[in-house]
Design goal:
Number of strands: 10
Structural class: alpha+beta
Helix content: 55-70%
Shape: globular
Radius of gyration: 26 Å
Number of helices: 22
Strand content: 5-15%
Distance between the termini: 59 Å
Largest sheet: 4 strands, mixed
Strand order of the largest sheet: 7-8-10-9
Length: 589
């Protein structure tokens, strides 16, 4: 196939990816703590100016502290304060944050500088990477499985709930997943190319960006995939001295300067990085889960293609072709490796989703080919029926949820009705088409409805997933939005607020709330009242004691602030502490 004939198809695939990952991206508020940490750290960067002329900020000296089985960089009272460039040393609520590399912060901060501090700007780059990954998955499937499987793989990618949902979040995992996929794709292209230099350079560049996104874990994901590829396809590694030499130079030039600069300017940085990477296999017990914890989650991560996924796991072993084992070897080995890691989160498996998509795509393409035979396997019709029921059920459920949401949002007077109504119509239509397309034709042939069944199922699944993630989830999550709570805090911090000036204890402030407050509220040197944000079960006595221990101030009174119902009082509580000393507590800038 020549490039000219592939160009319209590539454009169509990119459009499908953009619709799936970018639709209504900025409608959802920042309500997830992990997202808020990235967005708030990026705000600190953007507020300091561009990297080359950024204003340095003063942060306390830090040391490694072990609390509740975890290690953190905490303030060192005996050390002198540090002045750092927030673009070089990320800062969150006045303290150094080095738990993750800076690429997600940099991406969001640049867009904040250009377009303002909006949730859509923070999520744009991960969502764009998800859209571009649709084309990468397509080309990878075309080279490894075949031309017929490539569009199937692309549609499976944009219709997988877990993939679409995670790539719409401003976190490190979407960056890691994309650059791991880019590494595998570039390596496969280099292996099959007569001139592999450019592809090897792209491989090492993607590897460097993966290191800047989430650290050494990218080496595990890429190493497992490449090893499985060579074992299953028995192809020699590309031996191009120029490509490897130039690629290694790019890798060192891109990935090495930041950790070296941080190592020279922040004490104990290496200890923290060791704990956050290698420590997850040994002493880091945060979010620890048993060895088998991922196994019951795998069917959920495959939705809505769980029936085909379950069959696809067995398909390569029935056909006894070594090349067919590549996706299952990549997939199973990665899951097995991360089962040994103490920390277990669904997002940690996002980089292996391309293997899952390839696994299902090669089975689905083979199933469609078998359906065209007069003596097709007996298991094919029941499997197709089950998959159709799953897709149709998903579409109907999403439509019902959106209809309910339409009633809620219309009653609230929010301009949400039109989008919800269109999404309801699309999902109901998808359900009807999915059911009707499941026709048991006694004389299957290339033009029969059976041959178009998989395409119809994929389109219906993509519409249902997009409607659920981009419309229903947005409305549901926005009901937990911290905007109203942040407005309560803002009003009480106003100079002419009730009771005189107040200071904000930023160290207790949840990142989700902080994102909707000004970065610097100023120093209230004469304020004797301090506002402290605690969890929903916070108690005045406990909050006052913790504040006194942390700051050394004497608290003479602690009282809870009554909150309106629409400010989400079930998520946080607000306290005002009155201090004994006249100068009060000065909030840090």
């Amino acid at each position: 196939m020549h490039f000219r004939s592939r160009h319209p198809r590539a454009a169509a695939i990119l459009i499908c990816g953009a619709c799936a990952f970018l639709l209504l991206l900025g409608w959802q508020d920042v309500v997830n703590t992990h997202e808020a940490r990235v967005a708030q750290t990026a705000r600190e960067m953007a507020a300091s100016g561009w990297p080359w002329g950024a204003q340095t900020v003063e942060v306390p000296a830090v040391r490694i502290v072990r609390e509740r089985g975890q290690e953190f960089l905490k303030r060192d009272p005996s050390g002198a304060p540090l002045r750092v460039n927030p673009w070089l040393v990320p800062v969150l609520t006045g303290e150094i944050r080095l738990q993750k590399p800076p690429l997600p912060y940099w991406s969001a901060a640049i867009l904040f500088r250009l377009f303002g501090e909006r949730s859509g700007a923070a999520r744009f780059v991960p969502a764009l990477l998800g859209a571009v990954a649709t084309l990468v998955v397509y080309d990878l499937a075309r080279r490894l499985i075949g031309r017929r499987a490539a569009p199937v793989a692309a549609l499976l990618w944009v219709s997988s709930y877990f993939v679409v949902s995670e790539f719409r979040k401003t976190m490190a995992d979407p960056y890691l997943a994309f650059f791991s996929l880019a590494c595998v794709w570039a390596w496969v292209r280099a292996t099959g190319s007569g001139r592999p230099t450019g592809w090897l350079m792209l491989f090492y560049l993607s590897l460097a960006l993966g290191l800047l996104a989430k650290g050494p874990v990218v080496l595990v994901h890429v190493g497992i995939a490449i090893a499985a590829y060579h074992l299953c396809y028995r192809r020699p590694a590309p031996l191009d001295p120029l490509g490897h030499g130039a690629g290694l130079a790019i890798l060192l030039a891109v990935a090495l300067p930041w950790p070296l600069a941080v190592w020279r300017s922040v004490p104990h940085a290496l200890e923290l990085w060791r704990y956050e990477s290698v420590g997850e296999l040994a002493d880091n017990r945060s979010n620890a889960a048993p060895f088998w914890a991922y196994l019951p989650k795998l069917p959920y991560l495959a939705l809505p293609w769980t029936p085909l996924w379950a069959s696809a796991l067995l398909f390569p072993f029935r056909r006894r072709r070594r090349a067919l084992l590549f996706p299952v070897a990549w997939y199973a080995t990665t899951v097995l490796f991360f089962s040994f890691v103490n920390l277990k989160k669904d997002a940690y498996l996002l980089p292996v989703m391309p293997a899952q998509v390839l696994l299902v795509a090669q089975f689905a393409s083979a199933a469609v080919a078998l359906a065209r035979l007069r003596r097709r396997p007996k298991w094919l019709d029941p499997l197709a029926s089950v998959q159709t029921v799953v897709i149709a059920a998903l579409a109907v459920v999403v439509a019902a949820l959106l209809a309910r949401e339409l009633k809620i949002r219309t009653a609230a007077g929010v301009p949400f009705a039109a989008v919800a109504l269109v999404a309801c119509a699309l999902t109901v239509g998808a359900a009807v088409v999915a059911v009707v397309s499941q026709i048991h034709d006694p004389r299957p042939h290339a033009g029969s409805p059976r041959s178009r069944w998989l395409l119809t199922e994929a389109v219906a699944g993509a519409v249902a997933v997009a409607a659920f993630v981009a419309v229903y989830n947005v409305a549901k999550e926005n009901r937990r939005s911290p905007r109203a709570f942040a407005e309560v805090v803002r009003r009480r911090l106003a100079p002419d607020g009730p009771g005189g000036p107040r200071a904000l204890h930023r160290e207790s402030l949840p990142p989700t709330v902080a994102f909707y407050l000004p970065l610097h509220t100023g120093r209230e040197e004469t304020a004797r009242t301090v506002i402290v944000v605690a969890g929903k079960n916070g108690r005045a006595g406990d909050v006052a004691a913790a504040f006194a221990t942390e700051t050394g101030h004497t608290v003479i009174e602690a009282r809870a602030v009554a909150l309106e119902k629409d400010s989400n009082p079930d998520r946080w509580t607000l306290f005002e502490l009155t201090l004994a000393n006249r100068r009060g507590y000065a909030s840090r800038e």
